[in-house]
Write a structure and sequence with these properties.
heterodimer; A: alpha+beta; three-stranded mixed sheet; two-stranded antiparallel sheet; 5 helices; elongated; B: alpha+beta; two-stranded antiparallel ribbon; 5 strands; about 50% helix
Chain lengths: ~180, ~190
């Protein structure tokens, strides 16, 4: 999101610079030479002067502009996934990266006998683990839920995160 | 860094501007402001009439505002493209009667990284000095091996490498950010 914001910000700033320069040039051209300089705005003015606000294109255009605004506002106000999860430390501002937390929990769960594959999603408040097992005895999903949860919880505790995210573990049998 | 907070604020303001323009246009288009305005032309509104009547002085004022807006946008773009949070060389505090001592930022970060990379369980380390030369901060990014004792390693970084840096800078309160990540790769070490 940060990268997209930077790109959008660059586009917006360039647009503002261009618009500002254009307005100045057009105002000077109109005052001094009584003509347009770079943009033929007279046809635009004439169009707006003869177009009703109830015209379909005006309605659709307005709705599209408002929808774009709502989309952009929601995207900006939405809290994304955290980049770092803070550690309880008095000495430094220490944190694990979100990817680091996911990698270490994944490794801990994968080390449990019978677990074939693990996906980990880390958010600000929750660590969601989805592990899959081959399903053959004795490695059934039901029997591996407890060891997988313990392994993940133990590893999560060693990270000393503050606040500690809640852990949820789901073990399923691999579909064949 | 890269004006991230400004970017977000400006984009929120732009979104609010779009919503305002869009909603007013749509409400007018659907006749929400009464029968008197619904068949009006786009410029047949109080703002359009005001511009028509006061254009002689209004357009030069708008041009002046446009110059200001363009300059502010140019500054924003410059910060966006060229700013960095990295500090230059660090000016050491303390007794300056015998002159001023500066510490090359690269030398300090290299020393920190080299020390951290000697700890067993550390895959790699990177560091940078941020902030101002007189009030610097240190950011350490360390990749740890997943087989390592992560908590013990983190404490070792804090109590050794960070403590040594604070000592070298004669600044026990040096702000330090430590970002830890974990990898399943193993570091190659010279025996």
């Amino acid at each position: 999101m940060r990268l997209i914001n930077r790109l959008l910000a660059a586009l917006l700033s360039v647009a503002l610079i261009a618009a500002g320069v254009l307005v100045v040039i057009e105002v000077i051209a109109d005052r001094v030479f009584h003509t347009s300089a770079l943009i033929h705005w007279h046809p635009v003015y004439n169009w707006a002067d003869r177009t009703s606000s109830m015209q379909g294109s005006v309605r659709v255009g307005s709705i599209v502009i408002a929808a774009l605004g709502v989309f952009l506002l929601l995207a900006e106000l939405r809290r994304g996934k955290p980049k770092r999860l803070p550690i309880a430390s008095d000495l430094t501002d220490a944190a694990y990266t979100r990817r680091g937390v996911a990698a270490t929990i994944r490794s801990a769960v994968n080390d449990v006998d019978g677990i074939n594959h693990t996906d980990v999603i880390v958010t600000r408040r929750k660590v969601k683990v989805a592990a899959t097992t081959a399903g053959r005895q004795p490695y059934t999903a039901q029997s591996l839920r407890e060891p997988a949860t313990s392994a993940a919880q133990r590893r999560l505790d060693t990270l000393e995160l503050s606040p500690t995210p809640r852990l949820s573990v789901r073990v399923t049998t691999r579909s064949r | 860094m890269h004006a991230d907070r400004t970017n977000r604020t400006m984009l929120i303001l732009f979104a609010l501007f779009l919503i305002t323009v869009g909603v007013i246009g749509a409400l007018t288009g659907f006749g929400a402001f009464g029968a008197a305005t619904e068949h009006n032309r786009l410029f047949a509104n109080p703002i359009g009439r005001y511009f028509g009547a006061q254009g002689a002085w209004l357009w030069p004022v708008i041009a002046a505002a446009a110059i200001l807006m363009a300059l502010l946008a140019l500054r924003w773009l410059t910060v966006l493209l060229f700013s960095t949070d990295r500090a230059g060389d660090i000016i050491l505090t303390g007794d300056r009667s015998a002159g001023r001592t500066t510490l090359i930022a690269g030398a300090l970060t290299q020393a920190v990284c080299e020390e951290i990379e000697t700890y067993p369980g550390v895959h790699s380390a990177r560091a940078r000095i941020i902030g101002d030369a007189t009030i610097p901060g240190l950011v350490i990014e360390t990749t740890l091996e997943q087989t390592a004792d992560l908590a013990a390693l983190r404490r070792r970084i804090e109590t050794n490498a960070v403590a040594h840096t604070r000592q070298a800078l004669n600044n026990p309160n040096l702000p330090v950010t430590v970002d830890l990540t974990v990898t399943d790769r193993r570091a190659r070490r010279a025996s």
